[in-house]
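Page 37, continued from 36.
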């Protein structure tokens, strides 16, 4: 890729952030629209979970394939294809006549979305080559998540209340069209010097693992753990995961190169991504239902109540990027874990839902924590790898986020369904049912705090450097049975 001027690099960053904006907006807006979907389609709580998790499962399953494909055939080409599919899926979502058709249209959206964020991050990584400049660019990238969180509940609530939930998908059309045109004009094409071959067996095993595990978690409140479908789902997921690891250890070019996880920061970032986004997914799902179904707020008013959390994420995302550039990832991760843990404990121990002031403060704390966590995850995932592996490394980090969010919605939604049946009822009943879910959230936040401390620092940096050197010195050979060849 030729060296670009500073102005051109900033323009490329802005174009890539557009893709993140429409994907993130889609998630936050949909959460606000869940009660409307429930009424229009007479959907159960598990049906609402599937409108979110069907998208997240497909997205998570295909992100790594999209990243490696972009490294092979061209990042700009795959990025443009993803934009086209995502916009097409949005149109289909707006026309869905039933919940089943909506879930199917969300799958089309997810296929396109899988080609956007990891590929955009790979483009950014190859455009911003200086470490501090790249950290700041990733901070802006993280700030866009906060912007989408701030815009999503408000814009979504306004559209749902004034036009209907179908209008929330119309927003993706002008943004996606603008991104397509700007990409063709200003984003340079780039490829990896040595692209990786596809791994269809590994790809299939990932899809089976995520789909069957999520199915079992979502359906267990209604069917019970002893139901053949639930028990079978757990067994199939476990078997597929074991088969995937065994295959990855033997394959010349597996979907996920297990040598990545020899890097302590990379492994830590992966688990932190799962934990923090599980907290986010479950938090938004539970609170969107609580504000509208229990407190009786309109979609717009619910969006306004969620605004403090979203605003803090928007403010602290760029600040986290600057802090990572100046001091490394540890301070940002420690602040993130502590803030989200405090928020979770306010709900789990002190019933923050029952008071307006405590609810506001808990939302502010969660927004600060989530705003701080995104930039160090991405920076840590890609900075310890050679640029030739940037697409796959960024895709693994993005996959971890989506897996975490899907599991958060599944687990916290299942806990809520077990306590309330439908997610509706009096405040005291809902608070009692949601309390175990908030303990799950607190556990996720504690994992962020502990791992953010243990998997960063000088020793961790040396671990990442050794793994990066391994890829640089062995570009043509891959490990057999998990051992590196020399």
């Amino acid at each position: 890729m030729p060296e670009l001027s500073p102005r051109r690099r900033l323009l490329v960053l802005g174009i890539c952030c557009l893709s993140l904006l429409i994907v993130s907006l889609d998630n936050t807006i949909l959460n606000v629209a869940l009660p409307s979907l429930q009424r229009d389609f007479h959907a159960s709580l598990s049906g609402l979970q599937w409108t979110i998790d069907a998208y997240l499962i497909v997205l998570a399953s295909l992100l790594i394939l999209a990243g490696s494909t972009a490294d092979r055939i061209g990042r700009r080409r795959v990025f443009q294809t993803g934009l086209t599919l995502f916009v097409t899926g949005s149109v289909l979502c707006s026309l869905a006549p039933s919940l089943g058709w909506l879930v199917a249209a969300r799958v089309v959206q997810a296929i396109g979305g899988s080609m956007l964020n990891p590929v955009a991050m790979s483009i950014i990584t190859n455009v911003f080559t200086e470490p501090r400049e790249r950290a700041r660019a990733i901070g802006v990238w993280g700030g866009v998540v906060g912007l989408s969180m701030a815009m999503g509940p408000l814009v979504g609530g306004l559209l749902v209340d004034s036009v209907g939930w179908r209008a929330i998908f119309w927003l993706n059309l002008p943004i996606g069209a603008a991104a397509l045109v700007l990409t063709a004009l200003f984003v340079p094409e780039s490829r990896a010097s040595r692209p990786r071959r596809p791994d269809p067996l590994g790809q299939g095993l990932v899809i089976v693992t995520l789909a069957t595990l999520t199915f079992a978690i979502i359906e267990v409140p209604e069917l019970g753990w002893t139901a053949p479908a639930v028990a079978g789902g757990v067994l199939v997921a476990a078997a597929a995961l074991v088969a995937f690891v065994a295959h990855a250890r033997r394959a010349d070019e597996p979907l996920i190169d297990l040598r990545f996880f020899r890097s302590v920061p990379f492994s830590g970032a992966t688990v932190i991504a799962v934990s923090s986004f599980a907290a986010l997914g479950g938090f938004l799902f539970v609170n969107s239902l609580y504000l509208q179904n229990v407190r009786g707020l309109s979609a717009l008013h619910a969006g306004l109540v969620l605004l403090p959390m979203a605003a803090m994420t928007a403010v602290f995302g760029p600040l986290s990027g600057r802090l990572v550039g100046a001091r490394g990832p540890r301070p940002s991760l420690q602040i993130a874990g502590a803030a989200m843990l405090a928020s979770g404990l306010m709900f789990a121990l002190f019933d923050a839902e029952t008071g307006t002031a405590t609810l506001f403060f808990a939302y502010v704390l969660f927004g600060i924590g989530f705003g701080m966590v995104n930039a160090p995850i991405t920076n840590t995932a890609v900075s310890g790898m050679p640029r030739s592996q940037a697409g796959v490394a960024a895709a693994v980090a993005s996959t971890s986020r989506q897996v975490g969010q899907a599991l958060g919605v599944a687990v916290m939604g299942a806990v809520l369904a077990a306590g309330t049946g439908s997610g509706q009822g009096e405040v005291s009943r809902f608070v009692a049912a949601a309390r175990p879910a908030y303990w799950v959230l607190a556990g996720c936040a504690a994992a962020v705090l502990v791992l953010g401390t243990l998997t960063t620092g000088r020793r961790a940096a040396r671990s990442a450097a050794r793994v990066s050197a391994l890829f640089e010195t062995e570009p043509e050979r891959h490990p057999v049975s998990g051992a590196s060849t020399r």
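Residues 331 and 456 are 10 Å apart (CA to CA). Flag for discussion at group meeting. DSSP finds 16 helices and no strands in the chain.
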